[in-house]
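Sample 3 of the quickstart, ligand phosphoenolpyruvate:
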Amino acid sequence: MENRTPLIAGNWKMFKTISEAVETSEQLVKLLAGTSGKDVMIAPPFTALSSVSDIIRESCISLGAQNLFWEKDGAYTGEISPAMLVSAGCKYVIIGHSERRQYFGDNDDTVNKKIRAALGFGLIPILCVGESEKERESDYTFSVLDKQLKKGLEGFSLDDLETTVIAYEPVWAIGTGKTATKEQAQEVHLFLRSLIEKEFGDRLSSSIRILYGGSVNPGNISELMAMPDIDGALVGGASLNPDTFSKIVNLVNI
Ligand code: PEP
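Result:
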């Protein structure tokens, strides 16, 4: 890995009430005290953002959201704006997670709008891309990723994307216990980095962080992180338990 600070991000999905989220984040603050040289983010559900923000404020852990809506405000019942996330203490926002694409109609166009909205409010977007099992088996992995990345980042300049993070999350590896092998993940990360180089130049391609996500756990993080183009992890299930998540963070060598 070049000079890229590793990022270990926890996606809590639709788990944890406010009191559970508070308890987990209090434990994480203790377990991760003294962490340096790597970035850590947790993304609780919207309802717990503000409470968790108060707990992690002085720690090495940053706050992220799992989604946003692109409008500034308005009659959009049930949606959350970028300004609301900023006011709740968020620094990051996950965009285009495969569960959003699968169940809630997110697509490359809405993902693009969400990234623009996030950047407009100073949030760091984590753009998720990944192929399904069927697409991998039919040899469509690279064409699917090409489209998701190009469309997701369409219309942005090099400077716009300076902070943006990409997460490669093969859909077949999310929550399934199946992990891409380190070679499969590296192959895709290199492909994504080369695509970024073609579209935006080598300054961005060498600085942009590309995370791997899909059943990451303490047993596989080290070998994934040893690959030259893997700059961190987006962790779902294993981020819910503070002991397990802190183990993953601690196993990331800098
Ligand atoms: C995720 O939700 O982004 C994810 C990768 O989930 P899991 O780690 O449970 O596969």
